[in-house]
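Consortium newsletter contribution from the modelling node. Members have asked for a concrete example of what our holo predictions look like. Here is one, prepared for the alpha-D-galactopyranose complex that several groups have been discussing at recent meetings.
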Amino acid sequence: MMGIKYYEDERIFKLDTPKSTYMIGIVDDEQFVGHIYYGKRIEDYHLGYLMRTEEAPYVPSKNNRDRTSFLDCFPMEYPAHGLGDYREDCLMVKTPEGYTACGLNYVSHQIFEGKKPLEGLPATYGKEDECSTLELVCMDQSLKLEVTLVYSIFEKLDVITRSVRVRNLNDAPITLTKVYSACLDVENKDYEMITLHGSWARERHIQKRVIGHGKQSVSSLRGESSHQDHPFMAIASPDIKENQGEIYGLSFIYSGNFMAQTELDQFNTVRAVMGIHSTDFAWVLEKEEVFTAPEVIMVYSSEGMGHMTRTYHDLFRNHLIRGKYTHKKRPILINNWEATYFDFNTDKLLDIAREASKLGIEMLVMDDGWFGSRSSDNCALGDWQVNEEKIKGGLKYLVDEVNKLGMQFGIWFEPEMISPDSDLYRAHPDWAIQIPNRTPSLCRNQYVLDLSRKEIRDYVYDMMSKVLRSANITYVKWDMNRQISDMGSFYLDKEHQGELYHRYVLGVYDLQERLIRDFPDLLLENCSGGGARFDPGMLYYSPQIWCSDDTDAVERLKIQEGTAMIYPLSSMGAHVSDCPNHTVGRVTSFETRGYVALAGTFGYELDVTRISEEDRNMIPDQVEMYHKYNDLVREGDYYRIASYSENHTHDAWQVVSKDKKEALLTYIQVLAEPNYHSRRIYLKGLDIHTFYEVEETKKVYSGEALMYAGINIERIFGDFKGKLIHLIAKA
Ligand code: GLA
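And here is the predicted structure:
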């Protein structure tokens, strides 16, 4: 097999990607599965000594009196609960008698080309010549619980994916109370932990901290991946920079409760674990049933953060995102949310569309407020019938009129929700997630539908698809505007209530899969109160996700920098909105807002009939700019050049085409400074032997000069100003 080998004499598995190696060893008569190595690629496989089985505490067959000590320091590939490994474990059960311990030992393995899909879950995909898979079958003999550790490597990317399958071979049911997806034990090298932290309107800001003794984690118990924490962590050497340092990224393809934790133990080993959060998780496995834990994507780079970033981008663009828009330019849309909020009707929307179409905008998106009696966020979620008092003439009329202007039409839904003041709730109060005899907490005046139930999913899907079939609708914004609380289902018995969080997420996935299967030409954009569900799970269904409700050009620098650490620019929903900005009140130039939105999907979110003429007149140029650069931005390699969150004055990033013949540098001066020269910027990712012409000045520079000696950005007068520098290789 290409990148995965088993060395039988040494009992060692070696997984190679172009620049990384991962090694697993089987030790002792008891067949413990140990982690040997993950790091820079090496050809030598005689590395079993790293597991320290020749030193005290010896493996149990040599010295069973110290079994717990052995388990507590052995580098475990997938640690289980309760037998002596007191570090964080990945697997815990509850037997019918109430016991919680388990232990796993190797039984057999299989190596094959390609990669199997994960039933009901989003996951990376690849053809047989693109990836290969190792399945390590382990058992807890006393519980008769089979646990298969699944590893896939991508031949051209430094990626190793992991997931876990648990099968109950016992006659009696067993309850799984924790099934994490991955564990990584690495020898500490003063590592730091990098995570993405946030809040509504402040999503995914980069955070670094020293990994200290004990445990440090990010997690979500909000029923979604959340604004606050993000299902990603990296372990990095303290010298980590864009182009230097060692980094391990772990990204979780899941959109619900998660845990991402590092722990520095007494022997200076860092244990990183990632998976579905175990709080409020209890999954009953009947005889022969299988539970699949979602996939973790591990990326290793010894060449700095940038290589990790670009590896995730390539993986997501080629092996996670699906559908016809994956590699296609998206229509430039104008969304009416910040333009009108709930106060719109057919006439208003057509006014916007008429003006927008003249300027080159290609799609009108009708946001929240078109259905039921919805005129504020207090009611009607669940009543997905067009409000013909607002949408006079009906939806088809509106869409046809928009189409006649040469524009496409898109629509907003929040399918997972139910307002207490809705016909749906009055008919089915038991469809909301809630605990009997307890008044559930409202959030944005709404409840969450119990999507664990197929009949509820069917109902929602039916409503949505009727609307979508009623007119020529080519885009859906799928929103999710509250976090889940009061976890309870009227339909689950007491043994199964602990399955609700995960069943909810599976329900969302099922609905989105149906939608993209039945409407393959639809452009789907996920959203959650801004960017609370910007995660790889959702990217499997939609090629783009709304990044944040904060559209201020300066705030977006931080949000988009953090998001782009893992996610390709092609996936980041970004719009030019009106000023003073609705979230922070800041006034930035229309031009700068355009440059910042260009680093994402690009669109507008303003009342184009009411902005100043000067701004409106800039739109055709911005439209042209988008069409000129989007192929490069969407498909190219992304490099961070300067970070405003670090230097507090300016920001710069660069996109380079895969063939290195074209590059675009975006430079944003956030705050002007007095009395300084031009600013020296060092470009990245160019070909040192190529000469590049700067389109704007026609000056020619060598790639090596641009990268190693730098380029001078002329002093700019004023705050919040930006500029683009377009480089084209000379023939
Ligand atoms: C969320 C979204 C916004 C908008 C509103 C509508 O906040 O992020 O873009 O769609 O909901 O209620």
